[in-house]
Amino acid sequence: MISSARLRKSENALNHARPYMEQLQNILDHIASEINDYQSPLSQDRPVQRVAIVIFAGNDGLCGAFNLLLYKKLLETLKEYDGKVKSPVFVYPVGRKLVNDIKRTRGVEVMPIPDLFEKKQYAKGATALADELIHRFLEKDVDRVEVIYAHYKSMGTQIISREQLLPWVPQETKALSDKERNKVYIYEPDCEEILETIYPLVIHSTMYRYLLENQTSEQASRILSMQMANDNAIKLLKNLQLEYNKLRQQNITAELMDIVGGAIE
After folding, report:
1. What is the pLDDT along the chain (265 residues), one digit of tens a residue?
2. N or C: where does the chain have the smaller number of CB atoms within 10 Å of the terminal CB?
3. Statement: the pTM of the whole predicted model exceeds 0.85
């Protein structure tokens, strides 16, 4: 019941954040249609030597194999980079359940995350973490940033996903309608400066979306796990009750046989 309430809260937060993200992407599409030769420093691809990975996990247990599947995805990613990039790989674990496991993983350096996550200020925490990664990318401390999280598709389906955050790759979006395409916009101060402002905002919103999707997936996984545990407990109780009744019947039958045998003698 608690997880159901938290699931509804997470779903509402995710649905409320989507219009902001969609509008940012719409603005980006409009400006990109005006200029084709501009490339943001946040989207510049370069040889990958240093890698940073953000992995979202749960703070609590009782959610089945949710955290284990995320950790396995991290191991797969590390294996893919093994021998191809400089060691160690910087890992930012958001969620307490995997911190100790990641610390014991070879070739990994666990990086601190903003204290805002512990204070449950998730939007500010996601923004602060994204800003740190943007700064490290621009300073060329890392050449690629990836995010591992659980994509929330439905109540019964959560997909463990891995996405590249930096360098930023333009997302596939729906084509602009003729009405939108024919609108005339006046850009002030100019398109490039607007893009320099929008790119970090898009990365902030994307990081926050990954966090919200992971939180929603965690609660959905916990509901399913606890429901299965409850069903198994009920089934076990029924089996134990049946076994108890059989033993009780056997004892009563044995006592009756003793009484009958004594009366005959």
Report:
1. 777 787 788 788 888 888 888 788 777 777 766 666 677 888 888 899 999 999 999 888 778 888 899 999 999 999 999 888 888 999 999 988 888 889 999 989 999 999 998 888 988 999 999 999 999 999 999 999 999 999 888 777 888 999 999 888 766 545 556 666 666 667 777 777 888 888 898 899 999 999 999 988 888 888 887 777 777 888 899 999 999 998 999 888 888 888 877 766 6
2. C
3. no
If you search the block for the tokens 């990958």, which residue do you land on?
Answer: 48
Cβ neighbours for 35, distance < 8 A, ≥ 6 positions apart: 191, 192
Q: For the chain, where are the alpha helices, taking DSSP H only? A: 2-34, 66-81, 99-103, 122-138, 178-181, 191-264
* Cα 249 from Cα 262, distance rounded (Å): 20
